[in-house]
Every structure is written in structure tokens, then in C-alpha cells.
Design brief:
This protein has helices at residues 12-20, 23-33, 39-46, 50-62, 84-87, 90-104, 146-152, and strands at 66-72, 77-82, 111-115, 140-144. The protein is of the alpha+beta class.
């Protein structure tokens, strides 16, 4: 039987799953990549219990994936910014998004990623379909896709 942790495995995939293997964690990272950095915005968008979100954010900060940045002193409030380590998870999220679009979005993708400069689609290799540029998170814009309309239609 598979245990709750992968401590005994000498495997980089298993070790990475210790960080991102819990479903809320991946969705929190999705929100951070979409520019939602504040606790209340994440809680509302995700529909997650506040205590669960607080625990997951604390873990991501502890692991160096997110950085807690104060944006207001009174009352004290924070935003959560992706660190370099967090930004390195972008290819993983893009791959999961594109896999989900291919196999689980019959009405079309709910979210479309495009190159900010030319509007070209983001390929599976994270390049621009139109101009061929290699893309990083800051180069990409996310917008509602046809799957949003299909789900609400």
C-alpha cells in the first residue's frame, strides 16, 4: 500500500510530489500564475476553506515556492509572489492545462494562453505558435476560452 509520504523513495518525481502532490497546492499555484496573489482572492476563486488555504500557503512559503510580501501595514496584509523556484513550476502547470484541454474539455479550453507580444498560441513546448519565441510566464496572457461559455451556456 502506498503511504502518505514518499520519504523512502530515492526519486525526484516522488520528492516533487511531496510539494505539489496535494490537489489544492496545484490549484493555488495556478492562481498565483494567473496573478491572484492575495489570500481573499484565492479563497474566493478556489472555494477553498480558509484554514486549508492558510496551511497550503504557509507550506509553499516554507518551501521557497512563494514569498510572502506585505502590501499593507494597518491592518497588516500580505500578497504571495512566486519565487524563482515557483516560476520553475510553470512548465508543469502548462503541461497539466494542455493535457486537461486535450482530454477533459469537450466544449473547448476554459482558459487560453497566448503570447503577449503577437497573440500566438502557446505550444506544448512553451513556444509561440505564431512567431516561434520561447516563452516564460511573463510573456503569456491568459484569457477565458470557449470552454467557459460551453460550461455556462
Amino acid at each position: 500500500m502506498l503511504g502518505r509520504t514518499y520519504d523512502g523513495q530515492n526519486c525526484s518525481v516522488a520528492r516533487a510530489l511531496e510539494l505539489v502532490g496535494e490537489r489544492w497546492t496545484v490549484l493555488i499555484l495556478r492562481e498565483a500564475f494567473l496573478g491572484r496573489r492575495r489570500f481573499d482572492a484565492m479563497a474566493e476563486t478556489l472555494g477553498i476553506a480558509r484554514n486549508v488555504l492558510a496551511a497550503r500557503l504557509a507550506h509553499l512559503v516554507e518551501e521557497g515556492v512563494l514569498e510572502k510580501v506585505r502590501y499593507q501595514e494597518r491592518p497588516e496584509r500580505f500578497e504571495y509572489h512566486l519565487t524563482r523556484k515557483g516560476l520553475d513550476l510553470w512548465p508543469v502547470l502548462v503541461a497539466l492545462l494542455q493535457f486537461g484541454d486535450r482530454y477533459y474539455a469537450p466544449g473547448g479550453p476554459p482558459l487560453v494562453l497566448t503570447h503577449r507580444d503577437c497573440g500566438g498560441a502557446v505550444t506544448g513546448r512553451r513556444t509561440c505558435e505564431r512567431c516561434g519565441a520561447e516563452l516564460e510566464p511573463a510573456d503569456v496572457r491568459a484569457a477565458p476560452g470557449p470552454g467557459v461559455l460551453a460550461a455556462t451556456g
